[in-house]
Design a protein that fits this description.
This protein has two domains: about 30-150 and about 240-285, Bacterial extracellular solute-binding protein, family 7 (D-Maltodextrin-Binding Protein, domain 2, 3-Layer(aba) Sandwich), CATH 3.40.190; about 155-235 and about 290-335, D-Maltodextrin-Binding Protein, domain 2 (3-Layer(aba) Sandwich), CATH 3.40.190.170. The chain is an alpha/beta fold. Helices cover about 50% and strands about 15% of the residues.
Amino acid sequence: MASIKRATWLISVVAAAALFAGGAQAQQHKWKVQGLYGPNTVIHKEFEKFAQRVKDATRNTVQIETLPVGTIVSAADAADAVKSGLLDGAVGTMAYQGGKEPAAAFWDLTAGYDNPLHLIMWYRQGGGSEIMNKIAARWDAVFLGPVILGLESIPSKKPIRSIADFKGVKMRSPDGIPAEIFSKLGAAVSVMPGTEVYTALDTGKIEATDWGTLSVNDEAGYNRIAPYAIYPGIHSMNSVDFLIRKTRWNALTNEQRAAITAAVEEWSLSTWMSQELEDRKASAKRSPDTLVTWGEKEKGELRAVARSVWESWSTKSPLAKEIYDSQVAFLKSLGKL
């Protein structure tokens, strides 16, 4: 009799497990997520690898359609598209949102970080995760983590070896904190979309530009018309953020969320390593005299100018003050301020 009861119990457990597994498989989640780069770039290919890892780790229950930049909306409008439901997620949108929430402009803290690991440390151990999710909430989204690309270089027609060398340089910059910093350094700043940068450099309308990492710049051909570059970069820790609409995130099981969170961590590390490798390859192809390396003294002088701009922006909203205070405290703990 006992053996019959035990057999019945085992059958019930197996049946329940099968039912649970069947239910889990039946619950499919398909996300449309727009990236920040074109389909043939190293960065977008890493995005595609991440989507495949998520699919595998969740046993096909979470599938991410990886859309190149501009597929549905412009990069600047991607966060709004997440909020409206036009997109389920977006990669690399916070830097464009400073006009709507000033705190978003502090994400990579222009001229603050000179080591990719430090930005990750602030996010993981310095309170960055909590603050970034407060910002993401403005768009009814969840901030799942940073994806680190590396330090941006500055292509230029003449070498820029210190903050004094920016004086009078005609330079393209994105609007907001970067434009204000370069203006304070004495550069003649033009704010223009990325599609106009190559022509502006080629025709002499500008002499330098805020752009991507060394390999990204050289791949775009900027080195042919602006042969000098600050390397390693000194002004922007190139990184993208991963936002998912909150309702989509809340619809997942704990197991699915854990799998995706782990995949984001791997994605960030893999992208950082692949981009670093590409930058080193680009560096090796160049004549050494075209690469300008700043010392700690020069970087400290830039950081001091940048801090005055950060302070000004920190007064624009309570969240801006919170993220400013957090990052300044963290940089002080690293001996950078």
